[in-house]
TrEMBL record:
SMART domains: HAMP (SM00304), HATPase_c (SM00387), HisKA (SM00388). Its EC number is 2.7.13.3. This is histidine kinase. The keyword NADP does not apply. Keywords: Kinase, Membrane, Phosphoprotein, Transferase, Transmembrane, Transmembrane helix, Two-component regulatory system. It comes from Pseudomonas ekonensis. Residues 262-472 form the Histidine kinase domain. PANTHER family: HISTIDINE KINASE, SENSOR HISTIDINE KINASE YKOH. The keyword NAD does not apply.
Length: 472
């Protein structure tokens, strides 16, 4: 299972459990909280009514005044109020008054007058000077029919002479409880959704960052060029820096070992030729023989120098992961300069040159490397083009790439050599001298092209050979 998915699943589990416990706890507190608030309001209302009714109760004139009609009219009122988006079209309070013996003397519903309520806690506890409240079901089989009752004492001096009870059915509170629960569930679900989205984005970002770093490590292990991922601080940036430092150190050691071995192997042949010629020159010999051996020493020395220079150039390019500069390079101007530098050799062999690069065509890259790469291609083409042959530079833009083509008339490349032309130190004999080159030219060109994000292809064409460079 991918690391990003595992992190996301752990995050989902954490958010899910946290959201469940928090929402469950809050939901369990909503109903008691609403009832506590309602009970506090009933306490105030009951005590207010106790003070309002005290004088008439002491005088025994409750039923003789307008209190029964007032309470009945109160019960019939239709407020037509809207509370938090919920309509309220009737009052829900029931008010009844009991005497010192717990007998109901006044009831807003008119149903309990004369009944003994002395055993109900709201009356019983209040008559004893305690806080009297109860919650009872009007229908014993229906839990939703519970009614909250709060009593308040009617006092005559320090003596309790009666009780006023204000009752309110819990069912009247249920719409507000349901609305609060729905809103809370909605907000909770939205927050959990946002949390999961954030977790998904975090997991994706972390997975993508690690994937980039893994891709870089794989590219380095396979010997491909890759640019170290860039992170803005933190452990990932430190890890990327550490991997890059490790790559540099490991590649540097292996690179030096490989090049020392290669250079040692390649210098054996010219050194042996120089040493043999030097030994022969120590003895007496005709002047023409001496001159020939001196020429051998000179040519082998030049070959060693060329080999060393090209190895250094190739090493410089191979060790680089990115271009040091990227500027616009006019291609036609670059090709003209290369042809002008080889004009003596071109005219000496009477070659026909066609420069078909459009004047406005340009590519983006490092000018020095591009010049060296095209110079190597041109030198290689001049080595194989017969006297009076054709040499043609052309280029065109193909989508987001520039295709550079160099054609030269020559004998076809043997099939066995086609796949090895860019291999290091592999070379075919030159037609004129029969000697081989260092075998580093095309390898250098391929490295430069890869550094520019392109590719190189060498193949046989009609009446000659063509090299195609595809550069971004």
């Amino acid at each position: 299972m991918p690391l990003g998915l595992r992190i996301f699943l752990v995050y989902v589990l954490f958010i899910g459990l946290t959201g469940y416990f928090v929402l469950n706890t809050v939901m369990e507190e909503i109903r008691p909280g609403v009832r506590q608030s309602t009970e506090e309001t009933l306490v105030d209302t009951a005590n207010l009514m106790a003070e309002i009714l005290r004088d008439d109760f002491k005088a025994g004139t409750l039923n003789q005044n307008r209190w029964p009609q007032l309470l009945r009219a109160y019960g019939e009122r239709q407020p037509k109020a809207t509370i938090w988006g919920l309509p309220k079209n009737q009052v829900n309070h029931r008010i009844y008054v009991t005497d010192a013996n717990g007998i109901v003397v006044l009831d807003s519903s008119g149903a309990a007058v004369g009944q003994d309520y002395s055993r109900w806690n709201d009356v019983y506890l209040t008559l004893r000077g305690e806080y009297g409240a109860r919650s009872s079901r009007s229908d014993p089989d229906d839990p939703a029919s519970s009614v909250m009752h709060v009593g308040a004492p009617i006092r005559d001096g320090g003596r309790i002479i009666g009780v006023v009870t204000v009752a309110k059915p819990n069912s009247s509170l249920q719409p507000y409880v349901d609305r609060t629960e729905r809103r809370l569930l909605g907000y909770g679900a939205a927050l959990i959704g946002l949390g999961l989205l954030f977790g998904a984005l975090l997991s994706w970002w972390l997975s993508r960052a690690l994937h980039r770093l893994t891709g870089y490590a794989q590219a380095v292990s396979e010997g491909r060029r890759a640019q170290v991922p860039h992170y803005r601080g933190g452990e990932l940036a430190q890890l990327a820096t550490a991997v890059e430092q490790m790559r540099t150190q490991l590649e540097g050691k292996a690179y030096v070992e490989r090049y020392v071995h290669t250079l040692t192997h390649e210098l054996k042949s010219p050194l042996a030729a120089i040493r043999g010629a030097a030994e022969l020159l120590q003895g007496d010999m005709p002047a023409e023989h001496r001159q020939r051996f001196l020429g051998n020493i000179d040519s082998e020395s030049a070959r060693m120098q060329q080999l060393i220079e090209r190895l250094l150039n190739l090493a410089q390019v191979e060790q680089r992961q990115t271009l040091e500069e990227q500027v616009t390079v006019p291609l036609a101007e670059l090709v003209d300069g290369l042809l002008q530098a080889q004009v003596a050799r071109i005219e000496g062999r009477r070659l026909r040159v066609e420069q078909a690069v459009p004047a406005g065509l340009a590519l983006t890259g490092e000018p020095f490397l591009l010049r060296q790469a095209l110079a190597n291609l041109l030198e290689n083409a001049l080595d194989f083009t017969p006297a009076g042959g054709l040499l043609r530079f052309s280029a065109e833009r193909d989508g987001g790439q520039v295709q550079v083509r160099l054609f030269n008339e020559a004998e076809p490349i043997p099939d066995y050599a086609l796949l090895r032309l860019s291999e290091r130190f592999y070379s075919l004999p030159r037609p004129d001298s029969g000697r081989k080159s260092t075998g580093l030219g095309l390898n250098f060109v391929e490295e430069v092209v890869k550094l520019h994000g392109g590719s190189m292809a060498v193949g046989n064409a009609e009446n000659g050979v063509e090299v195609i460079l595809r550069l971004s």
